[in-house]
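[job 0412] stage=complex_fold ligand=manganese (II) ion status=START
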Amino acid sequence: MQFRLFESAIYTNRRNVLQKNSLTGLIVLLGNDETGMNYKDNWYPFRQDSNFLYYFGINMASLAAVIDADSGEEIIFGNELTIEDIVWTGSLPSLVDMATAVGVSKTQPYNNIEILIRKAMASGRKIHFIPPYRTENKIKMSQWLQVAVNAIDQMVSVPLIKTIISQRSYKENCELVEMDKATIISADMHLAAMRFAKPGMKEYEVMAKVKEVAYAQNGSLSFHPIVTIHGETLHNVYSGNTIKEGQMILCDAGAANDMHYAGDLTCTFPVGKKFTSIQKEVYEIVLQAHYSSLAMLRPGVLFKDVYLNAAEKIVEGMQLLGVMKGDASEAVAAGAHAMFFQCGLGHMIGLDVHDMEDLGEPYVGYTDTLKKSTQFGMKSLRLGRALEPGFTLTVEPGIYMIPQLMDKWKNENKFTEFINYQALDKFRDFSGIRVEEDYLITETGYRLLGKKLPMSADEVEAVRAESLQ
Ligand SMILES: [Mn+2]
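[job 0412] stage=complex_fold status=DONE, emitting structure tokens
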């Protein structure tokens, strides 16, 4: 096999749970296809669909599977290699062998899935499928179900979505082993950045070092890394700036290991040997918010409340710097903390860096009774629901000084009871700070995934001092 699998019983058991969850009809799960970058045969790196990986494990393109929820029959659809294919690919395990390795005894040519779906529809059976995020799969579903492409999103099966989430949210031991591995590679990516960066380099030189670590351990990237002196830009993709003494680098990067589990860590460190005094003060506020969040992690606690607590710690810290005033919890309730903390505090992580986001945030991070806030800041919180043992998630507080936001709110006289705009002015060019770690919720609390990175200001400065000798 050219890819690693869990033992077949893991997949069989997962599918049995899925099948027995009271759905009736056919469950259709589509794998991903190869996708052309600039022409059909020059592919992006292949990434299998995570739901397909979870239930069928096979890391090969152009497969689909059906589970008959009534009879329990399972079929993987795909085409065996022809001699023409083998000329280019060499010999690969047959579809039958791969299916057997994940406990599935029936395979059929790919096009037969359409016949099966049409037949089921003709006899009035329900076809359950999840939201296709790739255009090819959307077009296939549209063709098979004989409906317009833009009608597909409205036809997805909410019961199937909820069942999959009710399984994938609770990580099995075999998954935690892989998550630890992915997070350790991720930590090594950050250590490499911290040890490699020197004043005068370009951001992309540090970025290259970060990526190298993932690939050198047979991994890949769980998302496109952020390596920037403009940490205030939440999804910064530009990395062409020269890094200079006195600035900070924010590095947000994670590996996907060879079983496709994701790590997602962030560190912020000085370009020189030390943080400036004001950088250090703000860094300490972020760390306070982080440790205060960790202290709350345990089953039953709403992650929304962990977020609100972190926001309050940030407000209290900014009050000590004279930038905020008034009652901290009132400031947070009003949304004034979003001047500094515009994003969420964390998200589920697993096979996807934002785990199961294709299935829909309202189902993954919220519930029928707990809905996501629409307030600026809190509306970016992807996870609000009560924590449960087996959940794996990120904790990632930060403080981001966005000059455009300062100007806008100041001109609108917004939150003048909570924000001292005059004192804020000196932070216009401050940039941003975030720390991020990945955690498992246990029966009694939490456990760090992977290994500890240098995180206190002293620890970070020690690594920098050693690297810049
Ligand atoms: Mn993250």
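Residues 173-196 form the longest helix (24 residues).
[job 0412] exit 0
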